Amino acid sequence: MVCFLLHQWLIFSRSFCCDIMKKRVAVLGSTGSIGRSALDVAAMHPDLFDVTVLACANNVVRLAHQIQTFKPEMAVVLTEERADELKSILDGMQEDIRQVDIVWGEDGYAMAASHEMADAVLLAMVGAAGLMPALAAIEAGKHIALANKETLVMAGEIVMARAAAKGITIYPVDSEHSAIFQCLEGNASKYLKKIFLTASGGPFRNTPLEKFKSIRPEDALNHPTWDMGSKITIDSATLMNKALEVVEAVHLFNTPEDKVDVIVHPQSIVHSMVGFKDGSIIAQMGLPDMRAAISYALAWPERLELELEFPDFASIGNLLFEAPDTSRFPSLEFAREACRQGGTLPAVMNASNEIAVQAFLDNKISFPEIFDIIEKSMADHRNKTDLDIKSVLDADKWAREKSFSLI
Ligand SMILES: NC(=O)C1=CN([C@@H]2O[C@H](COP(=O)(O)OP(=O)(O)OC[C@H]3O[C@@H](n4cnc5c(N)ncnc54)[C@H](OP(=O)(O)O)[C@@H]3O)[C@@H](O)[C@H]2O)C=CC1
Ligand SMILES: CC(=O)[C@@H](O)[C@H](O)COP(=O)(O)O
Ligand SMILES: [Mn+2]
After folding, report:
1. Residue 350 and residue 364: Cα distance in Å, rounded?
2. Is the domain of 162 the same as that of 213?
3. Which ligand sits closest to the CA of 173?
4. Residue 92's pLDDT is what?
5. Which residues have any ligand 1 atom within 6 Å of their CB?
6. Is the pTM of this model over 0.90?
7. Residue 372: inside a domain, yes or no?
8. Is the pLDDT of residue 338 over 80?
9. How large is the average pLDDT for residues 314-330?
């Protein structure tokens, strides 16, 4: 009898310990490219992760499948109509997943980001919609894995200050920032002299300027190395992604813009590098697969088994680097100006880019008009430098209206 009880207690305590060691994760943007990669990581490590919250905008069919697989506590969609659609899909599924709490809209995302059954929040929604959930997750003291770079572009000062006040580290998911974060671990930050932010150069790295007018959305959606959502893929094609990433690096690593160099590296194997006072440079490398950066942001300081291949350096032969061409791709100049002026200008750059990218995807403007719209919106903006969330949201709204008027 004693042996039996001891045996039962051992089984109970082992499963209890496993459960309390599991990280409960909210995945906001679960139906997107980052979200799906994150769920892939979670599925590979069911002993480490329990997905308790899922959120998307409209893709209720994919969300329903994810709910079926991960059985979260809460699911969030953009509108009440989508919530009704999701409920009716779930009604046809097995009983235990119908318990999921379905909410919608801004309040729903805020609830998801601060859910008591989530220890960590992966912020993988696209665009400005990510900002308020990010602030809610920080306010709730969650472990933050941040993919949504727009959050830091719009309101980096506020976000970093609120995270610092809460004693929270923001673990970057963006591959370059994850690389820089990894290069700066230990006490390396105090020796930092230069960040080398790598860029693939996108599909038009070698396209002459006179051909830019005839670039179609399907050409721009053809990224040479990464498989990503449509907005960031167009951003990569304009180098606006790198522009956003310069601002992101400035905030994440508390570094002036002139310490962040962009270097084109078309193979996307060196994910970024950091140069130190003594002339040493540390690089972080790997094949382009976001599961590495996502898992590191979620499991830090651990590194998880992902069964990814290493690059075959002998067959690659040379790692290529070249300077970005800002005359064909002015985005980097926009970002540097936005960093120098600060205030609400980065939020204007971001919002204007979002409108211009969507207009290009909808065949309403040409590829080079993306640059024109951003440039004009930034030039016409009356910058507000004493920043608060209201001024950021006002600037975002102003930039969207301004950009629409230019289409
Ligand atoms: N993809 C990548 O490899 C990388 C992405 N990032 C960043 O990560 C973020 C996500 O990118 P990615 O996964 O490629 O994008 P996707 O377009 O593939 O996915 C976007 C996700 O956000 C949801 N979503 C869209 N609009 C809203 C909204 N208004 N409110 C709430 N949810 C919304 C989508 O839902 P639905 O499916 O229903 O539309 C989807 O789940 C971006 O900020 C991007 O810059 C950073 C580095 C790499
Ligand atoms: C995977 C990732 O982090 C993307 O942001 C990637 O960097 C895009 O490639 P570009 O270097 O072409 O912008
Ligand atoms: Mn990136």
Report:
1. 19
2. no
3. 1
4. 86
5. 29-35, 56-59, 78, 124-126, 129, 147-150, 174, 226, 228-229, 231-232, 290
6. yes
7. no
8. yes
9. 98
150: annotated binding-site residue?
yes
Can you tell me the distance from the alpha carbon of 190 to that of 156, in angstroms, rounded to the nearest whole number?
A: 21
Structural contact between residues 24 and 48, judged by C-beta atoms closer than 8 angstroms: no
Expressed as residue numbers, the domain containing 330 is 176-286+320-341
pLDDT tens digits, residue range 155-176? 999 999 999 999 999 999 999 9
Ligand 2 within 6 A of CB of 177: no
Query: Residue 21 domain-assigned?
Result: yes
Looking at 244-309, which runs of residues are DSSP E strands? Answer: 260-264, 270-276, 281-285
- The two three-digit tokens of residue 6, written as one number: 């001891």
Q: Are 130 and 244 part of one and the same domain? A: no
User: Which residue owns the Cα nearest ligand 2 atom 3?
Assistant: 175
Token duo for residue 342:
């600060």
For residue 31, say whether it is annotated as part of any ligand binding site: yes
In a domain, 398, yes or no: no
10 HSE (CA, 13 A, CB side): 6
189 and 163 housed in the same domain: no
Task: At 308, list the tokens.
Answer: 């990814």
Which residue has the CA at smallest separation from atom 3 of ligand 1? 228
In a shared domain, residues 35 and 78: yes
CA of 404 to the centre of ligand 2 (A): 27
Q: Is 388 helix (H, G, I), strand (E, B) or coil?
A: coil
Q: In terms of domains, do 219 and 99 share one?
A: no
CA distance 347 to 154: 4
CATH number at residue 155: 3.40.50.720
Number of compact structural domains in the chain: 2
Whether 207 is in a domain gets the answer: yes
Q: Are 56 and 30 in contact (CB under 8 A)?
A: yes
Tokens 């006179």 found at:
210
pLDDT band at residue 20, thresholds of 50, 70 and 90?
Answer: low
> Residue 241: CB within 6 Å of ligand 2?
yes
C-alpha 374 – ligand 2 centre gap (Å): 20
Q: Ligand 2: does its nearest atom lie under 6 Å from the Cβ of 297?
A: no
Query: Is the CB of residue 370 less than 8 Å from the CB of residue 360?
Result: yes
The number of angstroms, rounded, from the C-alpha of 249 to the middle of its chain's C-alpha atoms is 13
Query: Is the shortest distance between the CB of 231 and ligand 2 below 6 Å?
Result: no
CA separation for the pair 322, 198 (Å, rounded): 10
- Provide φ and ψ at 305, rounded to 5°: -70, 120
Angstrom distance (rounded) from CA 219 to CA 101: 41
